[in-house]
Amino acid sequence: PPAAMQRADPSFADDGSPPHHATVKLLDGRQMPVFGLGVYRSKPGDETYNAVRWALELGYPLVDTAALYRNEQSVGEAIRDSGIPREKIWVTTKLWDSDHGYD
User: Fold this and answer.
1) What is the pTM of this model?
2) Which among 56, 81, 88, 97 has most CB atoms closer than 10 A?
3) Inter-CA distances, 39 with 5, 13, 57, 78, Å
4) Given 49, 60, 69, 102, the catalytic residue
5) Residue 23: CB partners within 8 Å, gap ≥ 6?
6) What radius of gyration do the chain's Cα atoms show?
């Protein structure tokens, strides 16, 4: 990994928190979670919504999605309904090349 990234040991965290709380330090100094929920094969609707809600309730602070998965609305609704402040949740997403550009 790049030197700017802090190595995270998935077996434990320095503060004794569970493995899913391990992080890497980004160049801007923020700590990004190493573990999260990926919703690649989750169907839009209840399947994705419930998976995201349960993951957030269990303490997973990151959700990985993409426009291609077509379940981003369910991800957003679950995040909104979780009651967890948005700034405490990481969302990673991907865009198809043709979706990059300016409005």
Assistant:
1) 0.76
2) 56
3) 25, 25, 16, 12
4) 69
5) 6, 8, 13, 31, 32, 33, 34
6) 15
Cα 4 from Cα 11, distance rounded (Å): 21
Residue-by-residue pLDDT tens, the chain, 103 positions: 444 444 444 444 555 565 667 888 899 999 999 889 999 999 999 999 999 999 999 889 999 999 999 999 999 999 999 999 999 999 999 988 888 877 6
The phi, psi pair for 31, rounded to 5°, reads -100, 120
How far is the first Cα of the chain from the last one, in angstroms, to the nearest whole number? 34
| DSSP assignment of 12-47 | --TTS--GGG-EEE-TTSPEEES--EE-TTPPTTHH
